Amino acid sequence: MSPAVNARGYLQAKMALSLLSGKPIERIYPLLMSPNEYIFDDRELRRLKITLPQEVASSATILHPKQSFYEANREFVIASIVVLGAALFLVLTLSVVLLTLRKRQLLSATRILTENTMN
Q1: Most distant CA pair in the chain: distance in Å?
Q2: What is each CA distance from 7 to 23, 26, 83, 119, in whole angstroms?
Q3: Host domain of residue 20
């Protein structure tokens, strides 16, 4: 149940208890400001292609709001980030290994050229 329904029920029960406890009805004042609230089902709003005015939407309770891409695909997004992170780590590690091997090859080739030119 929404808070507005609970608030309205509470106020109505309080008025009834006042009446039952002997308070004259003339001294029980009606509710001038209702604690009601607007409640909309976002699925129905989208189905009927209704856009709420901002002043209504800001104070309304929206049931079943449309999920963002992240909310709808949270597990997929997290798994993708983990896989891409692992792939990046693997690429960086392999790059370092290949550069180290290439450096060793160049040093070896340089040493051989130096020895051949000395002889």
Answers
A1: 124
A2: 22, 23, 50, 101
A3: 3-67
Name the amino acid, one letter, at 46: R
Mean pLDDT across 55-84: 94
Q: Tokens 């002043």 sit at which residue?
A: 55
91, burial (CB in 10 Å: exposed 0-12, middle 13-18, buried 19+): exposed
Amino acid at 39: I
* Residue with the larger pLDDT of the pair 35 and 17: 17
Q: Please enumerate in sequence order all residues whose Cβ is within 8 A of that of 18, keeping only pairs 6 or more positions apart, or say none.
A: 28
- Assess whether 62 and 114 both reside in one domain: no
Note the pTM of the prediction, 2 decimals. 0.48
